[in-house]
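User: My instructor asked us to take a sequence, write out its structure as tokens, and then describe one feature of it. I'm not sure where to start. Here is the sequence I was given:
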Amino acid sequence: MAFGGDFDNNDEVMSEINMTPLVDVMLVLLIIFIITVPVLTHSVEIELPRASNVPNELKPTTVQLAVDATGDVFWNETKVTPAELAAKLSAAAATNPQPEIHLRGDRTVAYEHVVKTMAAVQSAGILKLGFVTEPAS
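Assistant: Let's start with the prediction itself. The structure tokens for your sequence are:
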């Protein structure tokens, strides 16, 4: 199939790809890369000071709160009164980072006792409160 000659014959479909624009674009890109790569790799030789940068990650402590079947509250396995609980929670909320509170409730405890403990944690200003359960067997 030739490109010169009879243009009046529109029955044939042109099946050749014109490669000239593609070659032009590739040559322009090649020239751009040849010019810019030495500029990017050229830098002033200096000796930088060396220092170690190790971030100090303070891991928050974990406080275990447990509410037994009678409604008594335990702070890390030590029984506390509601006044002592509020004081300990306020002191814990003032520390940085704040501790994570893990709340364990007995299966038979009244819902009211667990909610009161949750309200005490929230009113103290502690942001992280989690519930601890056992997986079903």
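For the description part of your assignment, you could build on this observation: Helices lie at 20-41, 82-94, 111-124. Try explaining in your own words what that tells you about the chain.
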